[in-house]
Write a structure and sequence with these properties.
There is one protein chain. The protein has three helices and nine strands. It is α/β, with parallel strands linked by helices. Helix 1 packs across helix 3. About 9% of the residues have low confidence.
Length: 140
């Protein structure tokens, strides 16, 4: 019986088998729009949101907060995210751990300690809510 396994040179530790370096493109990274031959990036709402925030701030958005922002169709401009980040940093320096951030159209619970948006809701939902474990409020 013939042995087809690759030979190994034990002295040099190098495998004599030839390996082909074949490029396999990642799935779902880009898709081709055949109507006008433009290539578009296939990203979801959460990716766009995180990219917009990361451009101007040092805030992180939790998975829960991303879901809430998307479900409730809450859009916060890059300028507002920058203001929120600055005020959260300022609040952290003043000893605030958890803060309620109020905007005209939204309310966020933010961990100043971790620089993380914990949850989000539409401002109309805040009318009958009780917020606990908050030791600071930021109004934008």
């Amino acid at each position: 019986m013939k042995n087809d396994s690759p030979e190994i040179n034990l002295e040099s530790g190098v495998d004599e088998m030839q390996i082909r370096n074949t490029f396999i493109p990642p799935i779902g990274i880009q898709k081709l729009n055949t109507e006008d031959n433009r290539t578009t990036t296939n990203t979801n709402f959460a990716d766009h949101l995180q990219a917009a925030i990361k451009n101007d701030t040092n805030l992180t958005i939790s998975k829960h907060a991303k879901t809430r922002l998307e479900q409730r169709n809450i859009e916060i401009s890059s300028e507002d995210w920058k203001k929120i980040s600055e005020k959260v940093t300022e609040a952290k320096q003043m000893g605030v751990n958890e803060s309620l951030v109020l905007l005209d159209h939204a309310a966020l619970i933010v961990s100043a300690k971790n620089q993380t948006v914990i949850t989000a809701m539409d401002r109309s939902e805040t009318n009958s809510q009780i917020f606990t474990n908050i030791n600071g409020t930021i109004i934008i």
